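Figure 6 in text form: structure in, sequence out.
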């Protein structure tokens, strides 16, 4: 089983609330699972090569990992394939699922797997420090929240595939 650290994350944009499958719980769960499972870099497993945005699995594994039945997984996967969110290839041993437009969803990050904001380290640390002070000072919550929001640039808000509305 994979070990994940607290520095590994995915981007998820609020525009997903308007996505056509959002109200279909099984399809939404499977798509979120695919985003979380997709590899952030190319690699191989047991002789099978995969690229960034792909992962190796099986219907049974997806069922176990999501809590959906195999039939529910198959139906949700058909939904995602029919609207172009994912593609799927399989043989008798494995299934490779590709999250289409993975780079648009997750941005073009540095190859070490860490997301980047484009800020210099010192600027990022200063920003993080301001955020910690904000969290610890409940009295000035509203004023500081406005200040933190104003520090974000439009470019940062628009990064990723779904954008900002």
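Output sequence:
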């Amino acid at each position: 089983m994979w070990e994940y650290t607290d520095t590994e994350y995915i981007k998820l944009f609020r525009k997903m609330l308007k996505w056509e499958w959002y109200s279909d719980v099984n399809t939404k769960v499977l798509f979120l699972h695919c985003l979380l499972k997709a590899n952030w870099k190319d690699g191989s497993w047991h002789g099978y090569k995969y690229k960034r945005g792909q992962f190796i699995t099986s219907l049974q594994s997806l069922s176990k990992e999501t809590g959906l039945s195999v039939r529910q997984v198959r139906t949700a996967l058909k939904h995602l394939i029919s609207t172009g969110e994912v593609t799927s290839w399989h043989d008798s041993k494995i299934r490779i699922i590709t999250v289409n437009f993975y780079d648009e969803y997750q941005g073009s990050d540095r190859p070490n797997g860490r997301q980047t904001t484009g800020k210099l380290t010192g600027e990022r640390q200063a920003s993080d420090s301001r955020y910690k002070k904000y969290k610890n000072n409940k009295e000035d919550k509203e004023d500081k929240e406005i200040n933190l929001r104003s520090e974000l640039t439009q470019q940062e808000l628009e990064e990723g595939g779904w954008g900002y509305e």
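Caption detail: The chain has two domains: 14-106, 121-158.
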